[in-house]
Amino acid sequence: MAQAKTSAFDPALVRAAGLAKALAHPVRIRILEILAARRGCVCGGLVDLLPLAQSTVSQHLKELRAAGLIRGEIDGPRTCYCLDARAVAEAASALAGLFARLCREGCGRPATRAGKPPHKRKDPS
Amino acid sequence: MAQAKTSAFDPALVRAAGLAKALAHPVRIRILEILAARRGCVCGGLVDLLPLAQSTVSQHLKELRAAGLIRGEIDGPRTCYCLDARAVAEAASALAGLFARLCREGCGRPATRAGKPPHKRKDPS
DNA sequence: CTCATTTATCGTATATTTACGATATACGAT
DNA sequence: ATCGTATATCGTAAATATACGATAAATGAG
Questions:
Q1: How far is CA A121 from CA A50, A102, B45, B74, B75, in A?
Q2: Contact A31, A64 (CB under 8 A)
Q3: What is the pTM for the complete model shown?
Q4: Does the beta carbon of A74 lie under 8 angstroms from any beta carbon of chain B?
Q5: Of residues A125 and B27, more confidently modeled
Q6: How many angstroms separate the CA of B9 from the C1' of C23?
Q7: B107 to chain A nearest CA, in Å?
Q8: pLDDT per residue over B82-116, tens digit each?
Q9: Do B92 and A83 touch (CB under 8 A)?
């Protein structure tokens, strides 16, 4: 069973994880960067700039669309993609918020319960 | 072939994608939040708080470790995990930097090449 | 030493992701 | 109407991710 137990979690958390997933591949981040730099780009333009087949690029675009980060507008036989500024901003603040929460506390090494000297094991650090 | 063509990309980009991947599952974000709130937690403590088997939790911990976001210290038969504050801060700034770049430009709908009216198709927005 | 506890790892099953080529569809041009 | 271009989707293969139970190793308690 590899079915994600996503439903058992806070929706905001699931959303954050979903956004992270959309960014979890170098090509997809690259696509976002290109779209930002060019204020939009046609699918074929992206294919020219990336070392991937057209169908693969289209698939990544689909994922970014599903995450809401980009939008596509039909321009004749082509489709022009551009960032969804709102969604990008929302994603930025969602992740910033997450990290803000995390950064409050670092690794204080939470009182390893008195002075018990650590033992030797594979040490998963 | 599902082999990620990750090697064909800028290392910083690959790193950012790797960080995002570590955050791409609700359980892993939850674990980070718990560790932040408690300033560290033993594996069994996390298992008690999560709806997953011990082995599954251990596996997620391994991924977070691999991403460098947490560290584990052996405490007797237990292992105490805590955030790696440095890595978390670095991750925060890496992703913040990414979004800063993206947010500069939104979706201006980049001059759909003059006034050609968009045609009708499945519209992938 | 023996036993219970804790955790990492192994083996396994299933689902998802990644990637490609082939194809169908939509459109503009001829 | 036909052709070429652009793109999304389909089918497929391989890799990876997700989850679990079982097990091994280490430790502390007795």
A1: 45, 28, 20, 7, 10
A2: yes
A3: 0.88
A4: yes
A5: B27
A6: 30
A7: 5
A8: 999 999 999 999 999 999 999 876 555 443 333 33
A9: no
